[in-house]
Amino acid sequence: MPKHALLSASASHRWLNCPPSAKLCADIKDEASPYAKQGTDAHSLCEFKVLTALGQHPPDPTDGLDYFDQEMAYCTDEYCSYVMEQLTEAKTHCKDPQVLVEQRLDFSKWIPEGFGTGDCLIVADDVLHIIDFKYGLGVLVEAEDNPQMMCYALGALDIYDGIYDITSVKMTIFQPRRENVSTFTIKKEDLLKWADDFLKPTAELAFNGEGEFKAGDHCTFCKAKATCRKRAEYNLELAKYDFEMPASLSETEIAAILPKIDDLTAWAADIKEYALQQALSGTEYPGFKVVEGRANRKYTDEEAVAFVVKDNGYDPYEKKLLGITAMTSLLGKKKFEELLGALITKPQGKPTLVPASDKRPALNTAKDDFSEEE
User: How far apart are CA 371 and CA 268, in angstroms?
Assistant: First the structure.
């Protein structure tokens, strides 16, 4: 069995929308980013804390983690607390629920050679609960109709349905750095119908390198996103608009452009980064050259700097109040609320234009204010 599945659950949002991308990306080398490595460290800590809370004695990985800090300590504590709360809830409708951590799941019944690892499963009568820890800060991940979670649920059902009387599946994304706990529940028969009617035939297309290329928000983590012709065609559709006089665009035209702006910006950045890496490898692009960018000065040895400054009668350090996450970790959640709850406020966020499907409530606009005055 290969270490990484061709049709991984984590990439299912992409290959379900663009089946031939799976084979295309398989030939491109994987390079783990610092963010991915940070996530791996956080998952190791989550596993240790949950197993310890369950009364087991796993080795503490903390000293070997490259990215460990107080924020990671706090976020993984929160995750562990959430898992134990859900276990307590499961015991109200099942006398012997099981908690499985970093469980290997096989969903090859629907996806050729399909397998993955579930962060946490709480298996009980009535409800099977899949919990996935996301340490990333950049992209908000929703549980609703999340194909990665649904694949994990299928793998868990394949093992435990029959051992437990499961009627529905609950899927939770726990993303503490975005203050996001997103949960989606689906009936078992509806999940199995989705798997048979949509997942299985689409996975077969992807596994065989068939189907049609399609661009969209699923391109974000595609390894071929910089050179994909379909994505280029999708974004270059905007070229039909005359940007020399943006004020002349009608509201209808602007409404047609808006959904593509984020994809267009991301695509342009991906092309630029790809071209830079190719140029560094020797590729020449007519009219362009590689130069040294601006750089800020930095200390070669911070401890030596501090010693010299202190030795000359100065204080080299500045005092800074701990951030809310670090302060919560220092005091503990209960003590933090008790001491500082009244001193915490969340200012109104900057107005942002988003698609109507976004779950956040709409702000009042000048038009709304005028209507209220009328």
Answer: 40
